């Protein structure tokens, strides 16, 4: 099943729970990968990643930035440099994108980029989050020419 996208996307904030990464809960196609210790898993909103252009990509770019309340937030982009609206980031990182079988066998090898949502993995000490913490994803469209769309990830 291919998700059809229109010219609009739901830009409301969506809450997701961050979970401790468990290698036994991912597709067996990733079983040969050497994963770091103490990783957190972030499931990404499928329609927003498609609209952002990440569906068929191997990786995405994360930018860490302090908000006006000195709280760390993240920005996910398809491009490797922060757009002018993000600017002054504390740190940038390229992360691999993984697919998973939603509402199915997490170990399934029958995953594909056309139908299955994505997740990313981040070292726990890099993102200062714990298992069970909540994050909100919000889509930010390009407002003007020469600006890039991205996802804001607000730490709950």
Description:
This protein is mainly β. It has one domain (14-155). It is 7% helix and 33% strand. It has 2 helices and 10 strands. It has helices at residues 46-52, 124-127; strands at 14-17, 19-20, 39-43, 59-66, 72-77, 91-96, 98-99, 118-123, 134-140, 150-155. The strands form 2 sheets. A 6-stranded antiparallel β-sheet has the order 1-9-10-5-4-6, with helices on one face. The chain has a 4-stranded antiparallel β-sheet with strand order 2-3-8-7. A hairpin with a 5-residue loop joins β4 (59-66) and β5 (72-77). The chain is globular.
- In N-to-C order, the SSE pattern is EEEHEEEEEHEE
- Give the integer mean of the pLDDT values: 87
Strand content: 25-35%
Q: Low-confidence parts lasting 5 or more residues at pLDDT below 50?
A: none
Helix vs. strand class: mainly beta
Domain module tally: 1
Helical content band:
under 10%
Radius of gyration based on Cα positions: 15 Å
The coarse overall form would be: globular
Strand runs, count:
10
* Number of helical segments with 4 or more residues: 2
Main sheet: strands, sense, barrel: 6 strands, antiparallel
Widest sheet: strand order? 1-9-10-5-4-6
What distance separates the N and C termini? 32 Å
